[in-house]
Write a structure and sequence with these properties.
By secondary structure, this protein is α/β, with parallel strands linked by helices. It has eight helices and five strands; from the N terminus they run βαβααβααβααβα. The chain has helices at about 20-35, 55-65, 70-95, 105-115, 120-130, 160-170, 185-200, 215-225; strands at about 10-15, 45-50, 100, 155-160, 205-210. The longest helix has 26 residues, at about 70-95. Bound molecules: thymidine-5'-phosphate (TMP).
């Protein structure tokens, strides 16, 4: 499935309350400006997980609101991801588009693996099944024997101490199942993100989210520009 037309895939991660949203919107705008001003035809697609397709958005409602054990939760986030890859991410990358996703698989390793303490080997197996590029071949021909799995080209991790994230979230809205978790849960989630970063350091840009919005934006922009993704 790799081709010279291959697009760009960036994911955004962090504990609830880490302040990703405004920066994702701003980065989408920056990419749109870049491609709007150039002769290269590229769409910029903003999406999210769990979600991004009608089926995955239905699964999102269950994942965020219904009680279930960690394996069931993991099946559902990967099922949603599979549909998202098939219908949105892979077709977009094959066209050469830019995909900016609010969360991807690192969130599963952080929340289900770190937060819930679920078995990381099982999550790796589900990751292999869901993201193996040859199985994402649109026609399922099995002819593409590339063993690699789909991962973002860059993952921007907004890192914020859980106590501060909790203060930012307090009273903001009715919390969902995850937002209602205690600070200790988010400490484990953050440790889960750190482990994923340690396993793939070149894919990650860890941003200190405990600074002014302008300073965070400056760091986000620097991470993207230093990799040559924005001029
Ligand atoms: P959001 O509030 O940033 O849209 O994220 C939705 C929630 O779902 C957030 O609390 C993290 C959680 N989540 C998981 O537990 N596992 C996953 O794989 C993903 C993508 C999100």
């Amino acid at each position: 499935m790799t081709s010279v037309k291959e697009g760009l895939f960036i994911s955004f991660e962090g504990i609830d309350g880490a302040g990703k949203s405004t920066h994702i919107d701003a980065l989408v705008a920056a990419f749109k400006t870049q491609y709007g001003d150039s002769k290269v035809a590229k769409n910029v697609i903003q999406t999210r997980e769990p979600g991004g397709t009608p089926l995955a958005e239905k699964l999102r409602q269950l994942i965020l609101n219904d009680a279930m054990d960690a394996l069931t939760e993991s099946f559902l986030v990967f099922a949603a991801r599979r549909d998202h890859l098939n219908l949105v991410i892979e077709p977009a990358l094959a066209r050469g588009d830019v995909v900016l996703s609010d969360r991807f698989t690192d969130a599963t390793f952080a929340y289900q693996g770190g937060g819930r303490g679920f078995d990381l080997k099982t999550l790796s197996t589900l990751e292999q099944w869901t993201q193996q590029i040859r199985w994402l071949d649109a026609n399922f021909t099995g002819k593409n024997d590339e063993e690699t799995i789909r991962q973002p080209d860059l993952t921007i991790w907004f890192d914020l101490p859980p106590e501060i994230a909790a203060q930012r979230l307090a009273g903001a809205r009715v919390p969902d199942k995850f937002e209602a978790q205690p600070v200790e849960f988010f400490r484990q989630v953050a440790a889960g993100y750190q482990k994923r970063m340690d396993d793939s350091p070149s894919r990650f840009a860890k941003i200190n989210s405990n600074q002014s919005r302008e300073a965070v934006w400056r760091d986000v922009l620097a991470a993207v520009k230093s990799r040559g993704f924005l001029a």
